[in-house]
C-alpha cells in the first residue's frame, strides 16, 4: 500500500509540471507583462513610466525564464517563471495583482465553500442512491418509468432556473430564508439552507438516472441470480450485493466532485453572495487578476490528483477483488 501511494504520488509530478508550464505559457507568452500592465491600468493615455512602475511593484519587470544580468542561481530564480509559477509547488501563491495575499484569502474563503459543498455532496449522494435503488427495485413498473421521465425533465432544466426560482419562491414569496448573503458561526446556517437545497435538487435528475443504470447493470449479472436462487429477498440482494458491487463506478463519479469541495461552486456562490473560493475565482476573472486565476488552476489540479489517489485507495475497501499493483 505504501509503495503504491508513493508511486502514484510520483506520477502526479509530471502532470503538475505540465499544467504549470501550460498555465505559464497561456498567461505570459500569449499576454506579455507589458500587455497585462496596460490592461490593468486601463487608461489609453497611460505613460510608459506608469507601466514600468506597475510591473515593478508586482514583480513583472523580471525576465520571463532566464535572467542574463544576474549571477549563479539567481539567473533562474530572479525570473517571472520562478516567482510566479515554480513557487506554486511550495504552495507559495504570492500576492494578487491588487496586492492581497492569495494564501490568506484562500484560507479565509475555503470554509464557506466547504460549508456549502460538503452537505450538498453527502445529501445528494444519499438521496440519489436511495431513489435509484427504489427505481431499480420497482424496475419495469409505472413508478420506474415515471421516475426516469422525471429525471430526464430535471436534467433538462438549467441550474439558473433552480437558483432564480428558489430565490424567488423560498426567499422572496415565502420569506423562509435570506435570498443571499453570508455570516459567520451558526448564523451562516440560514444563508446555506437554500443553496444546499437547490444544489441537491439540481443533481437529482442526473445522479439518480446514473446510479439507476449502474444498479440495473449489476442486477443482470450471474451472482445476483445465484443470490436469488439461494432464497435471499430482493431487498437483501439490492442492499447487500448490488449496492456494494456498484460502489466502484459510484466512487469514480464522486471523485470528479472532490475538487469542488474545496474550490467551491462558481455559479451558486456568485448568485448567493457566498464568500467562497468559487466567487473568489469569478471575481478574479472579472477583474482580470491573473495571479489569482493561476493559483486556483494549480490548486484545482492538485486537489483533482489527490482525489484520484484517494479513489484508487478506496477501491480496495469497497471491493476486495481489487488489488493495488
Instruction: Report the principal-axis shape.
Output: globular
Determine the CATH superfamily of the largest domain: MetI-like
Question: Largest beta sheet, briefly?
Answer: none
State the name of the first-level CATH class of the largest domain: Mainly Alpha
Helical residue percent? Answer: over 70%
Strand content of the residues, in percent? under 5%
Number of domains: 2
Query: What sequence of helices (H) and strands (E) makes up the elements?
Result: HHHHHHHHHHHHHHHH
Pairing-aware structural class of the strands and helices?
Answer: mainly alpha
Average pLDDT value?
Answer: 84
What is the first-to-last residue Cα distance? 9 Å
Provide a descriptive summary of the structure in words.
With 325 residues, the chain is mostly helical. The chain has helices spanning 2-29, 33-41, 48-58, 74-77, 80-84, 102-137, 142-155, 159-173, 189-219, 222-229, 234-245, 247-255, 258-263, 266-271, 277-287, 290-318. It folds into two domains: 2-90, no CATH class; 105-318, MetI-like fold. The radius of gyration is 25 Å and the shape is globular.
Amino acid at each position: 500500500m505504501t509503495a503504491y501511494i508513493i508511486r502514484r504520488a510520483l506520477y502526479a509530478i509530471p502532470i503538475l509540471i505540465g499544467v504549470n508550464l501550460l498555465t505559464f505559457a497561456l498567461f505570459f507568452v500569449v499576454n506579455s507583462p507589458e500587455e497585462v500592465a496596460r490592461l490593468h491600468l486601463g487608461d489609453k493615455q497611460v505613460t510608459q513610466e506608469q507601466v514600468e512602475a506597475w510591473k515593478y511593484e508586482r514583480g513583472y519587470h523580471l525576465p520571463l525564464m532566464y535572467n542574463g544580468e544576474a549571477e549563479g542561481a539567481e539567473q533562474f530564480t530572479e525570473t517571472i517563471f520562478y516567482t510566479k509559477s515554480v513557487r506554486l509547488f511550495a504552495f507559495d501563491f504570492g500576492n494578487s495583482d491588487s496586492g492581497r495575499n492569495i494564501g490568506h484569502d484562500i484560507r479565509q474563503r475555503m470554509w464557506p465553500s466547504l460549508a456549502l459543498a460538503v452537505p450538498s455532496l453527502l445529501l445528494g449522494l444519499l438521496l440519489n442512491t436511495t431513489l435509484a435503488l427504489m427505481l431499480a427495485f420497482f424496475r419495469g413498473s409505472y413508478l420506474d418509468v415515471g421516475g426516469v421521465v422525471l429525471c430526464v425533465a430535471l436534467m433538462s432544466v438549467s441550474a439558473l432556473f433552480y437558483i432564480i426560482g428558489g430565490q424567488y419562491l423560498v426567499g422572496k414569496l415565502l420569506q423562509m430564508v435570506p435570498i443571499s448573503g453570508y455570516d459567520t458561526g451558526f448564523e451562516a446556517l440560514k444563508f446555506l439552507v437554500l443553496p444546499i437545497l437547490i444544489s441537491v435538487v439540481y443533481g437529482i435528475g442526473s445522479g439518480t438516472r446514473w446510479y439507476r443504470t449502474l444498479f440495473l447493470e449489476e442486477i443482470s449479472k450471474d451472482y445476483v441470480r445465484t443470490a436469488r436462487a439461494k432464497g435471499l429477498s430482493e431487498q437483501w440482494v439490492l442492499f447487500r450485493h448490488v449496492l456494494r458491487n456498484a460502489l466502484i463506478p459510484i466512487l469514480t463519479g464522486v471523485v470528479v466532485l472532490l475538487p469542488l469541495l474545496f474550490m467551491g461552486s462558481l455559479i451558486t456562490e456568485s448568485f448567493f453572495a457566498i464568500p467562497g473560493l468559487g466567487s473568489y475565482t469569478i471575481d478574479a476573472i472579472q477583474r482580470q487578476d491573473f495571479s489569482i486565476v493561476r493559483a486556483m488552476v494549480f490548486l484545482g489540479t492538485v486537489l483533482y490528483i489527490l482525489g484520484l489517489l484517494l479513489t484508487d485507495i478506496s477501491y480496495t475497501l469497497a471491493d476486495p477483488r481489487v488489488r493495488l499493483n
